[in-house]
Each structure stands twice: as structure tokens, then as C-alpha cells.
Amino acid sequence: MSDEDVDIIVANGEKEGIEKDDESLAFTLDNLKRELKAYVARDLYTRNDFYRVYYTGDDGIQKALEVIENQKKYNNLLVSTE
């Protein structure tokens, strides 16, 4: 999702009477691009691809996937320390 794509979306919103808020847009721009890209992936491929794109770069999700994919790490975390 490019800046030009976002500009088109914002312009369409303004045509519909939605006021552009530069501060809010700057705050949410990266998330907006990632979410829109994820929806395109879902529409072109599968719902799983939505999540694959959406959670790219999420450190918590990446760590969870790393642990789940490593059986030894996963089992060690399941063992109680009590």
C-alpha cells in the first residue's frame, strides 16, 4: 500500500464530507497501510493470508510462532517450575 493509495482513500473520504485530520493520519498511517494490505491479501488469497500480512512485524506474534515451531522450547515453557 503506497502513500498515493492512502491519498486516494483520504480524498474519497473528504468528498464524502469526512474531514482530514493530519495528526491522526500520521499516527495511524503505518497501521492503516498494513491493514489495507492484509485485506487485499485476504481478498486475493485466503483468510490465513490476512493474518500472515497483518501480524508481520508484531514482535509478540513472531516470538510466539518461534516458540510454537520449536518443540523443545514449547515443551520447556509448558513445564511447571513449582
Description:
With 82 residues, the chain is mostly helical. It contains five helices and no strands.
Tell me briefly what this model is.
By secondary structure, this protein is mainly alpha-helical. Helix content is 77%, strand content 0%.
Set out the fold topology:
Blueprint: H1 3-15, H2 22-44, H3 47-54, H4 59-69, H5 71-78
Helix pairs in contact: 2-3
Count of helical stretches: 5
Query: Spans with pLDDT under 50 lasting ≥5 residues?
Result: none
Characterize the largest beta sheet: strand count, sense, and whether it forms a barrel.
none
Strand content: under 5%
- Could you tell me the radius of gyration in angstroms? 19 Å
Give me the count of strands: 0
Q: Determine the fraction of residues in helical runs and give it as a percent range.
A: over 70%
Q: What number is the mean pLDDT?
A: 88
Shape: elongated
Distance between the termini: 49 Å
N-to-C series of helices and strands: HHHHH
Structural class: mainly alpha
State the main characteristics.
82 residues; mainly alpha; elongated
